[in-house]
Amino acid sequence: MTRKVNIAVIGTGRMGSVHVANLVRQIPAANLTAICDIRLEVAQAVADNLGIQRVVKDYHELLADPSIEAVLIATSTDTHAMIIKDAAAAGKHIFCEKPLALDLKDIDDALAVVNQSKVKLQVGFNRRFDKSFQRVHQIVASGEIGRPCMVHVISRDPESPSIEYLRTSGGMFLDMTIHDFDMVRFQVGEVEELYVMGNVLITPEIREFGDLDTTIVSLKFANGAVGTIDNSRQAVYGYDQRLEVLCSDGAAIANNEVETTITKGDRGGFHSAKLPHFFMQRYASCYVEEVRQFVECVQEDKPTPVTGRDGLMAVVLGQAAWKSFREKRPVKISEFDRV
Ligand SMILES: NC(=O)c1ccc[n+]([C@@H]2O[C@H](COP(=O)([O-])OP(=O)(O)OC[C@H]3O[C@@H](n4cnc5c(N)ncnc54)[C@H](O)[C@@H]3O)[C@@H](O)[C@H]2O)c1
User: Fold this and answer.
1) N- or C-end of the chain: fewer Cβ atoms within 10 A?
2) Residue spans per domain, the chain
């Protein structure tokens, strides 16, 4: 059997604890040797639950351990760039949750160290690993239905996160739309220009720090295609995740996934299965698959499926969207000098 990859997880909060459990239970090619959180008690609880022996508070301890080949970073966003730089300098391969950082200069600096150190980096754009979105990608990329002309993404959360979370999240475009920016790049290619309209219709308190909860992003791609991303922080019927790519000779459409396809009819009308509640339910298998593929890339010395550049460009698009909203005009991506 091929050797196992020794990996450690840094940050064991909401997302990190899911990755830890997946590594232990569902990714046999990985050997999770240690976990780390500045809140030691949080990491200890995760470790106790899953029988993990080594728990540390300071990630530098893990970086100094030559037996650890790779780290998975699931700390709060403001620490990603710093930990990536330290991990790359220590020669560790890196899986990092999205976004790489909110500031482009921080991302540039972190990617420079990654490139110099020649370590692998994969960014946690989990939706690329969804079987329906993958299939749409294969159909469009194969050219079997012609060239892409239009893309529509509908991505609506069931409920808004807490104000505390939103305050430091980077706002709608860098926290939420960032997944959809990556998705449209994955499906159609590089974006050339975008224009944003948005409003606060759900949570009035977010006006205080200039955030939005209801937005439409119009996109023009370098290959001439056009598109929209429709986001809302509140869709009371559940987590609404749809995608359509219209091509010159057909269309590829991914509808919402539901538990069953049954429709029940009664005197009240027709009723169908509920949508998954939120991302943890809808994308559970993607969180396993993205890390499984990362481990395989380390094991077999292959390039990762979601690169540092993918991580950078999604943030560029998020920054462009904020610029478009604030300056009330279409923004060319070339204004950011990262194309
Ligand atoms: N891909 C997705 O679908 C998805 C979903 C949710 C969150 N995320 C991303 O995952 C990251 C974590 O989000 P979360 O919701 O799990 O947050 P969280 O606050 O629940 O967890 C973050 C953890 O990191 C720890 N931490 C902070 N600084 C640290 C450091 N220097 N060293 C070690 N531990 C440190 C915190 O104590 C906390 O336990 C964010 O970047 C977020 O954007 C991605």
Assistant:
1) N
2) 5-119, 128-283+314-336
Question: What digits encode the pLDDT tens for the residues 152-197?
Answer: 999 999 999 999 999 988 999 999 999 999 999 999 999 999 999 9
Closest ligand 1 atom number to CA of residue 78? 41
Ligand 1 centroid to residue 100 C-alpha, Å: 12
pLDDT tens-digit map of 209-260 = 999 999 999 999 999 999 999 999 999 999 999 999 999 999 999 999 998 8
Q: Does any ligand 1 atom lie closer than 6 A to the CB of residue 33?
A: no
Residue 178 structure tokens: 């960032």
Q: Which of 73, 76, 85, 282 to mutate to test the pocket of ligand 1 (most atoms within 8 A of CB)?
A: 76
Asked if 246 and 149 count as a contact pair (C-beta separation under 8 A), the reply is yes
Indicate if ligand 1 lies below 6 Å from the C-beta of 59. yes
Q: What is the pTM of this model?
A: 0.96
Strand residue runs (E) in the chain: 5-10, 30-36, 54-56, 70-73, 93-96, 121-123, 148-156, 191-199, 214-221, 226-232, 240-247, 250-254, 263-266, 269-272, 331-332
Q: Considering the domain 5-119 in this protein, what is its CATH number?
A: 3.40.50.720
Question: Residue 160: which region, alpha, beta or left (left: phi > 0; alpha: psi -120 to 50)?
Answer: beta
Q: How far apart are CA 15 and CA 280, in angstroms?
A: 9
Contact by Cβ (8 Å): 85, 262: no
CA-proximal residue: ligand 1, atom 33 (nearest): 37
CATH 3.40.50.720 fits 128-283+314-336, yes or no: no
Q: Does residue 7's CB lie within 6 angstroms of at least one atom of ligand 1?
A: no
